[in-house]
């Protein structure tokens, strides 16, 4: 719509905001993203502000954008730690090291050599990692952790 009518103002209304929707809305040129739960007077003010050229965002939408901007400065390991924490999982720094090396496709022996640990210690870490997320094998664990890095916030 913005392509054919560049001067038109588009404010997206949604019942719940998720990361993919918010990012897509911004990329496609929306002038605002608001939750439908806004009070009528606030909604009217936001539409007026959009008409006047302002970008209007609900608090939840702003939170999602702020989180994504923060993540731009993080590496994959830091993003993983942040998203695990947001999901309610607590891992030690050493466990995060092991998870990251698992995701990179390393064997237990390679992880042990990289972290200067015995292979038995690495196996113990891996067992504890699996238990925390209720996963029973390496393939599912690696898939889960990789998805966690690529999946956007749904809160």
Automatic annotation (TrEMBL):
HTH luxR-type domain span: 84-149
Primary site of residence: cytoplasm
The organism's place on the tree of life at top rank: Bacteria
InterPro entries in UniProt: CheY-like_superfamily, Sig_transdc_resp-reg_C-effctor, Sig_transdc_resp-reg_receiver, Tscrpt_reg_LuxR_C, WalR-like
GO CC entries: cytoplasm
One GO-annotated biological process of the protein: regulation of DNA-templated transcription
CDD domains according to UniProt: LuxR_C_like
Gene Ontology molecular function terms on file: DNA binding
Transcription as UniProt keyword: yes
Record localization: Cytoplasm
Pfam families reported for this sequence: GerE
Keyword terms of this UniProt record: DNA-binding, Phosphoprotein, Transcription, Transcription regulation
Residue span, Response regulatory domain: 1-51
The name this protein goes by in its record: DNA-binding response regulator
